[in-house]
Amino acid sequence: MSLKLLKRTTGRGYGTAVSGLLRLNTPASIDAKVAVATTIFTVPAGSTMVITGVRLRCTAAVAITVAAEAGVGIAAGFDDIWASQPLYGLTASGKVFEFPLGGSGVIATAGDEVKLGIDVAATGTSQTVEADVMGYEV
Predict the structure, then answer these.
(1) Distance CA 99, CA 88 (A)
(2) In total, how many domains does the chain have?
(3) Is 20 part of a structural domain of the chain?
(4) Is 38 among the domain residues?
(5) pLDDT band at 102 (very low <50, low <70, confident <90, very high)
(6) What is the DSSP string of 18-65?
(7) What's the pLDDT tens digit per position in 106-120?
């Protein structure tokens, strides 16, 4: 699958189209062996965004036997978009986990920080993941 660079119609910059959605962020490495909340996207000033999906991609893993458990959100606890759940199958480099959409999204306003909250760290030697935040500007 190739990724195609698209210009947003609102003039707010560029994003990458993945499965017909606009990727809103530039992913950074997240250590899945540490139970902590990490900002994966900040809504730009003057914008309102609909968050429609988050995909986690494992970029490196050594001897991971049990996947981490995590949620995504804006409010305290970081699970108001998707509740914390086991990241099934995300135990090796090249694997992908997608939080199930379930027919709803979340509207985030300027300055809101969307966070990945790792509640239970992965079991094993080491693991890094990257998060792609999907959505669009309204």
Answers:
(1) 10
(2) 1
(3) no
(4) yes
(5) low
(6) ETTEEE-S----EETTS--EEEEEEPPTT-EEEEEEEEEEEEEEES--
(7) 789 999 999 999 999
